[in-house]
User: What shape does this take?
Amino acid sequence: MQILEKAPAKINLSLDVLHKRDDGFHEVEMVMTTVDLADRIELTLLEEDTIRVESESRFVPNDERNLAYRAAKLLKDTYDVKQGVRIFIEKNIPVAAGLAGGSSDAAAVLRGVNKLWDLNIDLDDLADLGSQIGSDVSFCVYGGTAHATGRGEKVTQLPAPPSCWVVLAKPPIGVSTQSVYQNLKLDGAIHPDTKAMIQAIQAHDFNSICKEVGNTLEGVTLSLHKEVAQIKDQMREAGADAVLMSGSGPTVFSLVEQDARAQRIYNSLKGFCNEVYIVRMLGYRETT
Ligand SMILES: C[C@](O)(CO)[C@H](O)COP(=O)(O)OP(=O)(O)OC[C@H]1O[C@@H](n2ccc(N)nc2=O)[C@H](O)[C@@H]1O
Ligand SMILES: Nc1ncnc2c1ncn2[C@@H]1O[C@H](COP(=O)(O)OP(=O)(O)OP(=O)(O)O)[C@@H](O)[C@H]1O
Assistant: This one.
C-alpha cells in the first residue's frame, strides 16, 4: 500500500515576538499561510517493524534526525504500532530557509501514516502531537491560513486571503532559527499589528494585507546577512506590492497581484540568486 502526501511551504505574513518564556522559547503571534511550493512525500507500508527515510537531497538527513522520521516514530511509540513505513521525500522546498520545509514534511507524515496504519486520529490530535516535533508542525498539519500563538502551536484557522503571486528568493546561506531567536533584542524591535492583519484577511483586502506585513525577526537576520536586504530592495524596485522575510529567514517573499510584475521580479532576481520561485498563494486548507 502506498500513500502520497503534499507538504507545502509556509510564509509568515506577520510574525510578532512578544517575550521570552521561562522554557527558553518565545511567545509569538503569527499569521501564516501556505504557498504552492511543496515537497512530495511517498509513504509505503512495511510489514517489518522499521522506519526508513530516503531522499535524493544531499541537504536532509536520512536517519532519526529527519523530522519526517520523528513524526513516524512519534505515532509508532504513542499508538504502539508494529508495522513500519518507508518514507521517500522529494525535496523541492529549500532547506533551512524559513519556509518550514522540515515541519511540513513531518506534518505530511503524520497525516499520511495515520491513514497508512489505519489509526483514525483526528486532525486536532495530530496537530497536538506535531507540536512535540517543532513549533511550526501544528500549523503545517492543517495548512491553509491561520493565526498561531503560544510558541506557534496554538492554531486558529483564518479565511484564505485573496489569491496572488508569491515570488520567493533564497540567498545561498542557511539560517539557524535558534540563533536568530537568541540574537533578538526585544528592546526597540519592530512589532507588526497582528489584529490589523487578521482584519485585512477577513475583509479580503489585498492592499491592507500588503500594508500590514511585518516580522520581528527580520531585523536580526538583516543585520547578519546583507544579501537579505539586497533582495528586498530589488523586489521593491521591480514593483512588488509587499516584501518581507519569511520566518527566521533568509528567504524573502513578495506578494504581487499582476502576472507581468511577478514575472519582472522573478527575472530581475534570477541572475542574482539561484533559488527563485514564482508560485501561487494557496491560502486554503487542502487537508481533511
Ligand atoms: C521562525 C518560525 O519558523 C516562524 O514560523 C518558528 O517560530 C520556528 O519554528 P520551528 O522551526 O518549528 O522551531 P522549533 O524547532 O520549535 O525551535 C527551534 C528553536 O527556535 C527557538 N524558538 C522557536 C519557536 C519559538 N516560539 N521560540 C523560540 O525561541 C528555540 O530556540 C528553539 O530551540
Ligand atoms: N525533512 C526535512 N527537510 C528539511 N530539513 C530537515 C528535515 N528534517 C530535518 N531537517 C533539518 O532541519 C533543519 C531546518 O530545516 P528546515 O528546512 O525545516 O528549516 P526552516 O525552513 O528554516 O524551518 P522553519 O521555517 O520552521 O524555521 C535543517 O538543518 C535540516 O538538516
